[in-house]
Amino acid sequence: MAKLIEITDFAAPELDVYARFSEAQLLHCFEPREGLFIAESPKVIERALDAGYIPVSFLAERKETEGPTKDVISRCADVPVYTAGADVLKNLTGFPMTRGILCAMRRRALPPARELCRNSKKVAVLEAIVNPTNVGAIFRSAAALGIDAVLLTPGCSDPLYRRAARVSMGTVFQIPWTFFAADEKWPEQGTALLHELGFQTAAMALRDDSVRIDDPRLAAEEKLAVVLGTEGDGLSSDTIAACDYTVRIPMAHGVDSLNVAAASAVAFWQLGRENGTKERKEREGEG
Q: DSSP letters along 221-244, please?
């Protein structure tokens, strides 16, 4: 049975994670061990629980404890659930909880990039993408369209930030990901590691020597890393120079580029489509 605790003291230290800690403070609150993150909405929390993340506490609107969030809360019978009306929670958190529930959860140690890529064939590399909405949207596309893993450079927004995880619909808990380590400096050591593991690298950028995303050479690559750049400036010139391909998405009506999240979805779909066609032909040939 859920441990419901009515909120009577806004200053209670148990509520700091929801009311007073920034994303950075949550990340570092247990150093040198992994910190916390906040999951928002029943769907996101459910996927985090399915992936084995450990809940610390819930913050839920009173009516939600008997509504859509009941099943999620019931999975964590010994975890405290702090609750109050919608107006109280808005005053506490500073924003309306339109999805009715938050959950503070423990982070886990991230795997090394080498380990993550060892059994992967298609990976996405995110370079300095700082907008958590874009990071979350890229993860959702990656999970839906056949990307095996996501690698992030240190300048990227954290996929477990509340907004990123929510926009991803919890797919950040379903697709493997990690940050490049400090000694895997991007792009030099990072691209060298990918090449060592058998990947060809494709930089999404508008250059005179760019190939189209439907170029058959890309579909023929056994292992491919799709490299996506920051909003606005795109990939650095050093990254483009270090990659095997420079790739563009053909545009109409004079449009020069897409938002990075939209571009990722187009690229992942095209590459997955080509790969699926190749595998089908191979099966038919074997038959």
A: -SSEEEEE-BTTTBS-HHHHHHSS
As given in the structure block, the two tokens for residue 181 are: 């380590």
Residue type, 33: R
- pLDDT higher than threshold 70 for residue 205: yes
Judge contact between 211 and 217, C-beta under 8 A: yes
Structure tokens at 129: 């993408």
Residues 6+ apart with CB under 8 A from 132: 157, 158, 161, 163, 164, 167
Q: 3 in helix, strand or coil?
A: strand
CA distances to 71, 86, 101, 132, 173 from 58, rounded to whole Å, are: 13, 15, 7, 22, 18
Tokens matching residue 47: 């996927």
Strand 224-228 with 122-126, pairing: parallel
For 91, the 3-state DSSP assignment is: helix
The pTM for the full model equals: 0.90
* Residue whose pair of structure tokens reads 């990939």 in the numeric block: 235
Determine the 3-state secondary structure of 104 from DSSP.
strand
- Helix or strand run (H / E) with residue 82: strand 80-84
Q: For the segment 222-255, what is each residue's pLDDT rounded down to a tens digit?
A: 999 999 998 778 999 999 999 999 999 998 888 8
